[in-house]
């Protein structure tokens, strides 16, 4: 035993074990809070992504937000800490990323048939097909490049 300010304590190992148990309990209690915060963050990110992707199109914006809300309400019954809840959070984050980076709005140009103006924003993923799908195949001598054809 040792004394600290007139209080008698058992050995230091006992104090360390109690502290370790307390921290473990605190961590178990905080885990659902952390996952709840992650779910709320994913929901907010999804709403921001719908706003970015569907800006200027209120009908689609409202429909996408209603779908996001319905999906999160459906997943509300999942227990915190379950693998299904973690999958739903990851799925929401992936959908938000796709909406933000890969969805473009196209508006028909008046007076020009089959012509659309795309709204590209700062979050749009810009790149060439070579980086995404690999470089194009090299041309060989057997290809019909430059051959003139006539209409029959």
From TrEMBL:
Subcellular location as annotated: Mitochondrion matrix
Positions of the UniProt region annotated as Disordered: 125-152
First-listed, main subcellular location of the protein, grouped into a coarse class: mitochondrion
Keyword terms of this UniProt record: Chaperone, Mitochondrion, Transit peptide
Single GO cellular component term: mitochondrial matrix
Bias kind Polar residues: ranges: 142-152
GO MF term list: protein folding chaperone
Self-association and partners: Interacts with RIP1.
Task performed by this protein: Assembly factor required for Rieske Fe-S protein RIP1 incorporation into the cytochrome b-c1 (CIII) complex. Functions as a chaperone, binding to this subunit within the mitochondrial matrix and stabilizing it prior to its translocation and insertion into the late CIII dimeric intermediate within the mitochondrial inner membrane. Modulates the mitochondrial matrix zinc pool.
Name of the protein described by the UniProt record: Mitochondrial zinc maintenance protein 1, mitochondrial
Organism the protein comes from: Microthyrium microscopicum
Lineage per the UniProt record: Eukaryota, Fungi, Dikarya, Ascomycota, Pezizomycotina
């Amino acid at each position: 035993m040792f004394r600290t300010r007139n209080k008698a304590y058992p050995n230091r190992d006992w104090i360390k074990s109690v502290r370790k148990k307390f921290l473990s309990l605190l961590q178990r209690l905080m885990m659902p809070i952390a996952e709840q915060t992650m779910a709320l963050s994913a929901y907010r990110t999804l709403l921001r992504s719908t706003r970015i992707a569907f800006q200027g199109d209120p009908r689609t914006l409202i429909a996408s937000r209603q779908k996001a809300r319905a999906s999160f309400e459906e997943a509300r019954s999942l227990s915190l800490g379950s693998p299904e809840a973690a999958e739903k959070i990851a799925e929401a984050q992936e959908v938000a990323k796709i909406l933000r980076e890969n969805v473009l709005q196209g508006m028909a140009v008046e007076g020009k048939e089959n012509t659309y103006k795309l709204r590209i924003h700062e979050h749009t993923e810009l790149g060439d097909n070579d980086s995404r799908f690999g470089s194009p195949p090299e041309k060989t001598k057997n290809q019909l490049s430059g051959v003139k054809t006539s209409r029959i």
